[in-house]
């Protein structure tokens, strides 16, 4: 599948994905929220025995979903907050991965 560049510089694929997310905004947001609740619930319930690498791999995924939704809604505060959680998740994956080696 070729990527076409629109006259305004936005790829057609990105516009298509944004359209999909906008059409299913509540569902995508709910998926992100449920992922976040699930991750932190696992850590709370399992304590030190929790699968930290799995939890921290899922954390950036929910942050990306929620950041995308907040960006499309032009909500600057939540865009910034979820951008922070993406960085926290990536840094935690690297720390957990090093600790497991």
Report on this model:
This protein is mainly alpha-helical. It has a domain at 49-101. 79% of the residues lie in helices and 0% in strands. The protein is built from four helices and no strands. It has helices spanning 12-23, 25-46, 52-72, 76-100. α2 (25-46) packs antiparallel against α3 (52-72). The protein starts with 11 loop residues before the first helix and ends with a helix. The model has no long low-confidence stretch (mean pLDDT 86).
Summarize the structure.
This protein has 101 residues and is mainly alpha-helical. Helix content is 79%, strand content 0%.
The H-and-E topology, N to C, reads as: HHHH
Strand content: under 5%
Q: What are the low-pLDDT stretches, counting only 5+ consecutive residues below 50? A: none
**Largest sheet at a glance?**
none
The value of Rg in angstroms is: 16 Å
Q: How many strand segments?
A: 0
Shape: elongated
Structural class: mainly alpha
Mean pLDDT: 86
Distance between the termini: 39 Å
Q: What level of helicity do the residues show?
A: over 70%
Number of helices: 4
């Amino acid at each position: 599948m070729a990527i076409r560049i629109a006259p305004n510089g936005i790829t057609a694929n990105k516009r298509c994905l944004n359209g999909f997310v906008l059409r299913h905004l509540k569902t995508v947001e709910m998926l992100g929220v449920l992922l976040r609740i699930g991750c932190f619930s696992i850590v709370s319930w399992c304590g030190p025995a929790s699968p930290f690498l799995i939890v921290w791999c899922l954390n950036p995924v929910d942050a990306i979903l929620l950041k995308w939704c907040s960006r499309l809604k032009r909500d600057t505060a939540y865009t910034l907050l979820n951008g922070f959680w993406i960085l926290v998740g990536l840094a935690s994956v690297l720390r957990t991965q090093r600790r497991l080696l």
